Each structure stands twice: as C-alpha cells, then as structure tokens.
C-alpha cells in the first residue's frame, strides 16, 4: 500500500466536532430521553411528559414545568460546553445536578432536527427556537420547557442503521424514564407513544420519603415486587444506603430489575453490582438474579461522576468502603425478616 499523502493539520468545523461528540452521548433514542429528562429534573420540574413516535426515532418530545430558559439564553443552550450548572472546577467537585458538561443539547442538535420551547416565570409567553435555522418565534405555553427532537440520526446514517425495531427502541426509552422515576417519587412522569398514554406515574404529594419510594416502586415495577422485597436502611459513617431488596424468591433469570443510584444518579457500576450480588451469596443459587433498587447517599467529594460523557459510570474514592456498606445493607435487610420469623416461631 502506498502511504497516504500527508495533509495539513486543520481544526475541525464546529458542527463536525459536535457530531463526533454526539456519538459518545447519543447511542439511541433512549439516550436522548435520558438527557432531556435529566435536564427537566435539573430545572426543578414536578411533572415530566415524554412523547414518542416510532420508538423515538421520528419524535422525542420532553415537556416539563421547570424553571424554563430565558429567551436570550435559548441559543446559548445549544452551544457546546454551555451550561448553567457549574462554573468552576470546585463546582465540579461537588456537583449536585444530573448535568454539568453542557454537551447534550449541542450533541442532539447536531444529529437531529431540534426545537427548544421555553417560558420562564417572568415571561408573558414562551419562545421557540429552531435549532437548525436559529429562528426565534413567540408561542403560547405555561412556565417550563419543551424540547422536540425529530428524525434522530438523519445526518449519520451509519448510526441509524444500528437501531433496532421501534418496539425495542421504545422499550429502551421506557427503561430510561423508569430509572428516573424510581429515584424521584416526588415528580410525576407520563410516557406517550403514537398518541397513546402508555405509562403514568403520579407524583407523591410531599416528601420523597420511604413511603413515597415504596409507592413509586410498586407503580413502576409492580405491587408483587414490593410485597416480595424488604426495606434497606443502613448507615456506615457518612454513607447511607436505602431502598428495597427483593427476597430470594423474587429473583429472576435476567438481571433486568437491578437499579443502583449514587446521590440520586442512576449508575451501572461493578462495585455496586458485585456488592449487592454478594449479599445474596448464601441465599441465591445458580444464575438467578436478585431484584433491587438501592440508593447510596454519600459525600459527593468521594465519588467522581465525570468519568464518561453519559455519566452512567462513576469512580469511588474508596470502593471497598462502598462495597462493604452496600453488602452489609442488603445482608442486614435480608436477615431481618427471617430473624423476626424465627423469633416468632421460637416459643
Ligand atoms: P447540561 O445539562 O450539562 O448543563 P445541556 O446541553 O443538557 O447541558 O443543557 C444546556 C443548558 O440548557 C443547561 O445547563 C440548562 O441551563 C439549559 N436547559 C436545558 N434543558 C433545560 C430544561 N428542560 N429546563 C431548563 N433549562 C434547561
Ligand atoms: Mg443536560
């Protein structure tokens, strides 16, 4: 093979940079749903409505009643690395919002047709920004934001080809909302597909306490699961682990009902998965998969969430400490009802 002729080094155009970055953030429609719901929650929404067409490929619209975006910031919101959530490295150390990288909207805008529609408290009406043309027009809406994303991946057909059937993509979108719903019982969620309401989880009135969490778990995963699980509530130093752990009888063939959160963020983490699994070591046999929803609250300075653009991975400063706490939390929860039953049987 002849060597390629050398070409001069050039900076890539902005749009291409965004499209490349989008590959990391947006794998499929569900990735867009996750990012937009993250944004709605960061804006303080109490109700989030997701509307989909063709499994999200034709349309994803996420509507919230949050703080809204001021008119003159709408265009900025679409720029790369533009965020209202952090402004210094110090902020990053203790980030309390779902987002902070300022990448999602820019990424989505580079690979789909997007519009931002928003109204803040002080506005007399909403403004709608067309992501492609930059056109801004007044529209009617109450306070909050609606982001519409159409024809995902139209510009990147290679990615579009990797998409599965609409039904499969829809299932992933629902799963993305479910992950948010399980950690925010104080927020109402609704999912529509092709004009039909397919899921609706009402907000608890008031606090996101254990009762509210139990009710939401029952709404999202079913009342049988709630009945077949035990409460987890365990402290170790500054670590607090709460949630529910399914009894061994509730275990499943697939690991599709294992939800783990760190400081309110859904994560997929080997340390947490392994810790939870090891708590079932003596009571679960073969390849049965436990069911659980576990919430780890910890000092944000002891966990790094800036590991991957999707923020689904985290790195713990002391993973042994976290592993032990989660394992003990689940072990104790599983032991408690058996201990009580044994005590009852004793006399
Ligand atoms: P990030 O969430 O990391 O800040 P995004 O690209 O997702 O980056 O969003 C950019 C900015 O747009 C956010 O920082 C926020 O100020 C604003 N924004 C996006 N979605 C919403 C929303 N639903 N409600 C209010 N503001 C929003
Ligand atoms: Mg965001």
TrEMBL record:
Gene Ontology annotations of biological process type: mismatch repair
Asked whether the keyword Zinc is assigned, the reply is no
| Similarity comment: family membership | Belongs to the DNA mismatch repair MutL/HexB family.
- What is the protein's species of origin? Polaromonas eurypsychrophila
> Single GO cellular component annotation?
mismatch repair complex
Task: Name the Gene Ontology molecular function terms of this record.
Answer: ATP binding; ATP hydrolysis activity; ATP-dependent DNA damage sensor activity; mismatched DNA binding
Q: What does this protein do?
A: This protein is involved in the repair of mismatches in DNA. It is required for dam-dependent methyl-directed DNA mismatch repair. May act as a 'molecular matchmaker', a protein that promotes the formation of a stable complex between two or more DNA-binding proteins in an ATP-dependent manner without itself being part of a final effector complex.
Name-wise, this protein is DNA mismatch repair protein MutL
Q: Which key words are in the record?
A: DNA damage, DNA repair
Query: Which gene codes for it?
Result: mutL
Lineage of source species: Bacteria, Pseudomonadati, Pseudomonadota, Betaproteobacteria, Burkholderiales
Q: Domain DNA mismatch repair protein S5 spans what residues?
A: 217-335
Keyword DNA damage attributed: yes
């Amino acid at each position: 093979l002849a060597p390629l002729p050398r070409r001069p080094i050039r900076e890539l155009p902005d749009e291409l940079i965004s499209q490349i970055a989008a590959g990391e953030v947006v794998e499929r429609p569900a990735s867009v749903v996750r990012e937009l719901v993250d944004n709605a929650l960061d804006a303080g929404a109490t109700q989030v409505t997701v509307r989909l067409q063709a499994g999200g490929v034709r349309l994803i619209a996420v509507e919230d009643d949050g703080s809204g975006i001021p008119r003159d910031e709408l265009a900025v919101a679409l720029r790369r690395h533009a965020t209202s959530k952090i402004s210094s490295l110090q902020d990053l150390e203790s980030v309390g919002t779902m987002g902070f990288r300022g990448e999602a909207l820019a990424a989505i805008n580079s690979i789909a047709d997007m519009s931002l529609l928003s109204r803040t408290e002080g506005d007399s009406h909403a403004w709608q920004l067309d992501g492609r043309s930059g056109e801004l027009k007044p529209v009617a809406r109450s306070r909050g934001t609606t982001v519409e994303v159409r024809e995902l991946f139209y510009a990147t057909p290679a990615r579009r080809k990797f998409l599965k059937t609409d039904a499969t993509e829809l299932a992933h979108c629902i799963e993305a909302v479910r992950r948010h719903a399980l950690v925010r019982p104080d927020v109402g969620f609704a999912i529509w597909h092709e004009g039909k309401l397919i899921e609706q989880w009402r907000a608890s009135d008031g606090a996101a306490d254990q009762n509210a969490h139990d009710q939401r778990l029952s709404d999202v995963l079913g009342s049988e699961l709630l009945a077949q699980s035990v409460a987890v509530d365990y402290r170790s130093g500054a670590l607090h682990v709460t949630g529910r752990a399914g009894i061994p009888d509730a275990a499943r063939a697939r690991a599709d009902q294992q939800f783990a959160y760190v400081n309110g963020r859904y994560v997929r983490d080997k340390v947490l998965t392994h810790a939870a699994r090891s708590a079932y070591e003596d009571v679960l046999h073969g390849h049965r998969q436990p069911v659980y929803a576990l919430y780890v609250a910890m000092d944000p300075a002891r966990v790094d969430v800036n590991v991957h653009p999707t923020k689904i991975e985290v790195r713990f400063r002391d993973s042994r400490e976290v592993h032990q706490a989660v394992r003990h939390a689940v072990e104790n929860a599983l032991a408690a009802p058996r201990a009580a039953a044994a005590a009852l049987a004793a006399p």
